[in-house]
């Protein structure tokens, strides 16, 4: 029986009186790749930010490692937050630091690793994402795909239990998309627990174990990727899949 990594219970999120998330409940199992898909404005990215407490829920609970992240103190939240890695669509690299420095900042400051150990581990992850040769380069000299691969290495260097990807290819030129998806697919093959908000439908179908189709702040359909894409139950899911030309 699979062990649950994160459990969401009736998660809501409102901004200025506008309810974006309308009672999200679901489970993410350890070693599972969950893809969250759906129309623009359906609340997908808001859900990720609510779960990892970057913009915590208005109500509901997020249970991770037996603790409700919405109720723990700041110190406990920071400690648990180290175990949830986040890769943003806009990279968020520090421009005044080299690639290697970007990857080692977190482990040195948060995990208190020595410079030597942090550098050694960072090079391991940079090699994993195909960016070791750019260790001494600055972000401004990198393509979008290269920046995103560095961002993935930075997240991996914190050795998280769960990895979140918020539309990791949406800011990339088409020629850079494949190199980033390849890295994420390799991570999926390692049976890492990952949640991916994506508009790359073929990728979601091939890589995800489970898919949530979101619309209007709700999960309208949940299933394994093969079933959801080939035999969707809900009309809104069928329309969405037809619009993205998968059937």
From TrEMBL:
Taxonomic source organism: Fructobacillus parabroussonetiae
Domain ABC transporter: 6-241
The protein's name in its UniProt record: Amino acid ABC transporter ATP-binding protein
Keywords: Amino-acid transport, ATP-binding, Cell membrane, Membrane, Nucleotide-binding, Transport
Ribonucleoprotein in keyword set: no
Classification via CDD domains: ABC_HisP_GlnQ (cd03262)
Keyword Transport carried by entry: yes
Compartment list: Cell membrane
InterPro entries: AAA+_ATPase (IPR003593), ABC_ATPase_HisP-typ (IPR030679), ABC_transporter-like_ATP-bd (IPR003439), ABC_transporter-like_CS (IPR017871), MetN_ABC_transporter-like (IPR050086), P-loop_NTPase (IPR027417)
Similarity comment: family membership: Belongs to the ABC transporter superfamily.
Membrane topology recorded in Swiss-Prot or TrEMBL: Peripheral membrane protein
GO molecular function: ATP binding
């Amino acid at each position: 029986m699979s062990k649950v990594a994160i459990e969401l219970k009736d998660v809501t999120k409102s901004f200025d009186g506008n309810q974006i998330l309308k009672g999200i409940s679901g489970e993410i199992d350890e070693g599972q790749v969950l893809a969250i898909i759906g129309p623009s404005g359906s609340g997908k990215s808001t859900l990720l930010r609510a779960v990892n407490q970057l913009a915590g829920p208005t109500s509901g609970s997020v249970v991770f490692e037996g603790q409700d992240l919405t109720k723990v103190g700041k110190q406990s939240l920071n400690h648990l937050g180290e175990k949830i890695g986040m890769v943003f669509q806009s990279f968020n690299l520090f421009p005044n630091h080299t690639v290697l420095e970007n990857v080692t900042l977190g482990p040195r400051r948060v995990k208190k690793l020595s410079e030597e150990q942090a550098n050694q581990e960072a090079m391991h992850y940079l090699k994993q994402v195909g960016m070791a040769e750019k260790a001494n380069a600055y972000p401004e000299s990198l393509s979008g795909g290269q920046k995103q691969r560095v961002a993935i290495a930075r997240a991996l260097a914190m050795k998280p239990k769960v990895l979140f990807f918020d539309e990791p290819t949406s800011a990339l030129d088409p020629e850079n998309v494949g190199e980033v998806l390849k890295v994420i697919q390799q991570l999926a093959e390692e049976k890492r627990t990952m949640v991916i908000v994506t508009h790359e439908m073929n990728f979601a179908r091939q890589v995800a174990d489970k898919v949530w189709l979101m619309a209007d702040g709700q999960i309208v359909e949940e299933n394994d990727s093969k079933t959801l894409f080939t035999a969707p139950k809900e009309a809104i899911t069928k329309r969405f899949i037809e619009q993205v030309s998968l059937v």
